[in-house]
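Hey, I'm writing a tutorial for new members on how sequence and structure tokens pair up, and I'd like a real worked example in the thread rather than a made-up one. If someone can provide the structure for the chain below, I'll link this post from the tutorial.
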Amino acid sequence: MLYSVTATNQEGIHGIVSLSSQKSFPTAHPLTTDEGFNPEELMATAWATCLNATIQALLESQKQARPSRVEVTCELHREATIGTGYYFQVNARASIQGFTLEEAESLVQQAHKRCPISKLIAQSQTISLQTVEWNT
């Protein structure tokens, strides 16, 4: 095993999440201004960070001579289903500085196949991943 963490939540979206790494953070309802993180923020953060790190690892492994920055933006919407319940629609956009759109698309798709968060959500019908030209 390379890494393991356990998260414990005893109070839902109005409390504290404790981690086995001795860290903790507050939780808050997404429709309030209370300090804390909600599941929507955590999900978007997890995919944006993991996918970005995977793209950067691929660039490093390919020993790219070009100076490159990577930007991954995840937008998450909580949507109501017909009947009861909700679902998350997650739309990600990735861009790589110094690469053509075609080159970036190839790297982004390779990363999507390797990224652990992408692997968790890849079969979901409520995610999308788009490669876009670098604009920043």
